[in-house]
Amino acid sequence: MPRLLLASLLLLPGPLAWADCRQLLAGELLGEPDYACLRQVYSGPSDQWPAPHVDPDVQWKELGPLPERAPSPADNPFTEEKARLGEELFFDPKLSRSGQIACASCHEPDLAFTDGRKVSFGHDRLAGRRNSQSIVMSGFAEPLFWDGRAATLEAQALRPIEDPLEMAFSLPELLERLNDSADYRQRFELVFGKQQIDAVQLSQALATYQRTLVRVARNTRFEQFLRGRHNMLSDQQVHGLHLYRTKARCMNCHFGPQLMDNQFHNAGMTYYGRKYEDLGRYEVTGKAEDVGRFRTPSLRLVSRTGPWIHNGLFPDLQGVLNFYNVGMPRPQPVGEQTNDPLFPKTSDRFQPLGLSADEMRALRSFLDTL
What we know:
mainly alpha, 13 helices, 2 strands, disordered N terminus
């Protein structure tokens, strides 16, 4: 469609111009993007945006704004008092053996609840082997951790306490410490109706606080765009949104208000048989097909959650995008690995994208709004 004709269509009233714009975008015409057309289409309701480019088996959900907080399970209903107690516990180093490490030590509010390191430091400054994920969207995730070893947020909340590389404590010792505190006994009685503090109460308070952290992601430019303030994204960023949904194939794994699929994928980063080897989900399930699979992180606040991937080896988000653009690494077995049943296979979800330099810039600019 000639640009002059498109411009005249945009001046027509009603849905005709909008429909022609959609048809134009669906055609994936080559050349410079028509920003007026893109903006017109993406200023409409999200359920009328162009269909995303996803594989047939992907049960995707449309993008949308976030709720005020993540949903709570029936056995741990939300209360403000419980959330405040969980917040106090989250920032209290008493939860660690040394009395020097809090949950917030690896999930700092000023860093989108990450720690900005490749891998986190824990007890006695011991280094872990995985990157500290943002927990802003943890209330929507099941299972949790990079390898999915915790089925619920309540179960996840207690794992770092007993991890020897993190807080290096034990639950019985921690509960004894908390029960020795008259202040904590009073606070727990107010929330749970009894002074004797147990592990269930501790996990429920911590999880309840984490479910409120979605608020951190509710004031981004993209969130405001989704709520109708369409001037919050530049023309380049609207183009990036369109690429995110189509040519860049991002919505195969990052969809819905949460921008994640609660699935595990092998992105070719297992480092099998080399330094930094990490077998991922396999360590939990013992299934050969899970070697190298890691949980899909949410892309909410992604520009603030580096370094990236499970071991933090990407200090620049652009480096991650470059890998995705070429379809991710696809290691091939050599020698004795040829018949190794555990040799990892990069997921077919990842395909060469062929994004141009301008398209990469547009996509990155859009990611910065999340």
